Amino acid sequence: LERTFIAIKPDGVQRGLISDIIARFEKKGYKLVAIKLVHPTKDFAEKHYDDLKGRPFFNGLTDFLSSGPVVAMVPPPPPSQSMSNHTADPQVWEGQGVIKYGRKFIGATAPLASEPGTIRGDFAISVGRNIIHGSDGPETAKDEIALWFKPEEILSYKKETDKWLYE
Ligand code: GTP
Ligand code: MG
Questions:
Q1: Model confidence pLDDT, tens digit, residues 17-73
Q2: What are the helix (H) ranges across the chain?
Q3: Which of 16, 18, 53, 79 is deepest in the core (most CB within 10 A)?
Q4: Which residues have beta carbons under 5 A from ligand 2 (an ion)?
């Protein structure tokens, strides 16, 4: 089942954007399966952005991510096609795309290059204060979910609205 990892960064929390950001994923129809407020240590922030080690902004970026509480979330897509077609190949809806769509929803890394209507496009200005993080692919999503959450913190449940979202 495809899942992505989303975090509202310390600037998003400080600026009171938690509800606006969660509302976008919720209203789109994605289901939240894990959420918590955490204040990451510098060490933890370095692990999270491990792939950017060596970049000139790495120290500032990890100082920033560890500067205050972060809202960590895992919203996967609801079951979708399997609701109406029980013989559907799970692969079909695994590829359905909360990772890619989540990134589209978030917008470009630089908020001024993000389209209006995207989260960064609507709420942010600077690249170093872009309020939200989203996994950039299936592998990173898996690693990030495992870094931020214990398996028992990720819930599985049915939503009555699923049948109104998927034909
Ligand atoms: P995340 O969702 O946070 O991972 O952002 P991203 O995937 O859009 O970008 P990337 O993973 O390449 O970079 C991670 C974060 O580092 C970005 O969100 C920015 O805050 C920061 N960053 C990336 N490039 C730059 C840069 O050129 N300058 C500065 N100051 N920060 C950067
Ligand atoms: Mg990234």
A1: 999 999 988 888 888 889 999 999 999 999 999 999 999 999 999 999 999 999 999
A2: 10-14, 18-28, 42-48, 58-65, 90-94, 98-106, 119-123, 138-148, 162-165
A3: 79
A4: 136
Task: Choose which residue among 57, 103, 109 to substitute to test ligand 1 binding: the one with the highest number of ligand atoms within 8 A of its C-beta.
Answer: 109
What pLDDT does residue 78 have?
Answer: 58
Judge contact between 24 and 119, C-beta under 8 A. Answer: yes
What ipTM was predicted for this assembly?
Answer: 0.96
The structure's pTM equals 0.88
129 is in an annotated binding site: no
Taking the domain 6-165, which CATH number applies?
Answer: 3.30.70.141
**Domain ranges in the chain?**
6-165
State yes or no: is 133 an active-site residue: yes
How many angstroms from the chain centroid is the CA of residue 115? 18
Q: Indicate which residue's Cα is closest to atom 17 of ligand 1.
A: 109
Ligand 1 within 6 A of 117 CB? no
